[in-house]
Amino acid sequence: LLLVPADAVGRRVACDGERATVRYVGPVPPTAGLWLGVEWDHPERGKHNGSHDGVQYFTCRHPKGGSFVRPAKVSFGVDFLTAVQQVYQTDTEEVLTDASSEKLSWLGISERSYENLPTVLLTRSEVNGPGADGEIRRTTPNVKYLDLSRTLLCCWEDVTAVSQQLDHLENLQLSNNRLRLPADVSAHVQAFSSLRVLGLNSCDITWSQVLQCAPMWPQLENLSVEANNIRELQRLEQLSLSNTGLSDLRFDDAAPGAQTAMFPSLTSLNLDQNNITEWCVVDELAKLPSLVKLSCRGNRLVSSDGNPRTANQLLIAKLGRLVVLNSCEVSEDRRGAELDYIKMFGEEWLKAGGGSEPSSQFTCQHPRYLSLINKYGAPEEGELKKPEPFALKNQLLKITFVFPDDAERKPIEKKLPASMLVQKVKGLLYRLLKVPAADLQLSYTSLKMVGTEFEIDSDQKTLEFYSIEDGDQVLVRW
Predict the structure, then answer these.
(1) Cis omega (within 30 of 0) on the bond before 30?
(2) Closest Cα to residue 148, out of 129, 171, 112, 174?
(3) What is the pLDDT of residue 234?
(4) pLDDT value of position 454
(5) Which residues belong to CATH 3.10.20.90 in the chain?
(6) How far from the centroid of its chain's Cα atoms is residue 144's Cα?
(7) 217 and 174 Cβ atoms separated by less than 8 Å
(8) What are phi and psi of 66, to 5 degrees?
(9) Rg (CA), the chain
(10) Hey, is 224 helix, strand or coil?
(11) Which residues contact 100 (CB under 8 A, 6 or more apart)?
């Protein structure tokens, strides 16, 4: 005879590989016998909203999230140590196929092996609670990483009863569970005193519930809450919105160039692999007061010349507080990016009225432009970069290589594409000079700034990146 627990309502069950929560225990006339009314984690598995023949036996959040099932069809699960044994203990039949001495050896060390386990993976197992008091501490005391994702735990009290016996627990994965919130959060703090990493993906929780639970995790450094019912965020420092289909983002409480009151603590943002195409989204990001780290790979932010490097330079120039872009420090690139930005949009600035009060349309599109002019000075007429079709950007540049430390060597004139990497230029010079590329030191001078020598310090940048133009001289030393 299958016994239904007295506290079955609210308990988690497994049925045909799916997970559900028991919402009702009792008869469902006109059929005979006992039924369980369950709400499925995946609503498409259900048939109704908890009603039958006009009678509402229980309620579901989804109109077709419920079903009635016989108790014999479900499992209420097993305790923690039973699940550990099911996952980690060698199958008896398998042992019997070995030599008897090997069998005895395994049986002799099985208990001790549990003691030394640093990692326990019980993903998709049917753990429903801790079991007998103190048994977890006695049997698996050294666990640091515990995965209890998609189990049958139903409340934080059960999680606490397990974790408080694991003094070294640092990483706990609880994704794809449905956990009732604790009545008294403070009673659970000690159980998670060593916890650094916590996974709560797909747990059907809201941000306010996360904040309600947060005091339980005093040492937490990394929290993952993907695929939940999160619509608003506060007190957030790191946020990943990668691969979410995001195309727009706005902070309407702040004017262009001002700071938003939203996300005051957000320092790191991941927007990789989205559908962001408009530069106005980047201007909105500039409103975040603490943002210093941005990852924005795999979007479709395109500069007028179609060059991805130019697009990165625009990101750096528009986001004045940025320290890291796409995992790379930007400090060395910032000055060049901002100066190029001034030149690139100088024509637009002049057409918008120039001076310190250009048109509001220009200010909306380039919120940082005036502050950059205050920082570096207004662009000279000869410095302004005229907008050019993308095809012209790949034109050949006439460059004269000179050798200031070798008076006898004559200058060499070459026509090179603006998109050519400095590394390729050094390869060309190696063939001409027979000097190893690694020994070559390059800089350049421009007719527009006579007397100033600019260092070319990265082999992985292009001539265009350094703003080298037709007629410039490249100085070669070794």
Answers:
(1) yes
(2) 174
(3) 65
(4) 87
(5) 396-477
(6) 24
(7) no
(8) -115, 160
(9) 33
(10) strand
(11) none
Measure the CA–CA gap between 362 and 351, rounded to whole angstroms: 9
Do the beta carbons of residue 153 and residue 79 sit within 8 Å?
A: no
* Residue 211 burial (CB count, 10 A): 12
Q: What angle do CA 191, 152, 75 make, to 5 degrees?
A: 145
261-277: b (≥16 Cβ within 10 Å) or e: ebbeebbbbbbbbbebe
- Please give the Cα distance from 97 to 120 (Å, whole number): 27
* CA atoms of 238 and 243, how far apart (whole Å): 16
Of residues 113, 58, 64, the one with CA closest to residue 88: 113
Residue (of 145, 82, 92, 93) closest to 117 by Cα position: 145
Pairwise CA distance, residues 444 & 469, whole Å: 10
**DSSP code, position 284:** H
Question: What CATH class has 11-73?
Answer: mainly beta
Quick one: how many helices (H) and strands (E) in the chain?
14, 23
User: Which bin fits 29, alpha (ψ -120 to 50), beta or left (φ > 0)?
Assistant: beta
Asked if the 396-477 domain carries CATH number 3.10.20.90, the reply is: yes
Give span(s): CATH 2.30.30.190, the chain: 11-73
User: Structure tokens of 247?
Assistant: 């195309």
Token pair 């020598």 in the structure block, residue: 453
CA terminus-to-terminus distance, the chain: 89
- Please list the alpha-helical segments (H only) found in 58-173: 80-88, 92-96, 100-115, 135-139, 156-163
Q: Which CATH number describes the domain made up of 78-224?
A: 3.80.10
Q: Count the Cβ atoms, other than its own, within 10 Å of residue 474.
A: 23
Ranges of the chain with pLDDT below 50: 1, 90-112, 387-393
| pLDDT at site 231 | 76
- The token pair at 303 is 């500069």
Residues of the chain within CATH 3.80.10 domain(s) are 78-224
Among 366, 357, 265, 378, smallest CA distance to 320 is for 366
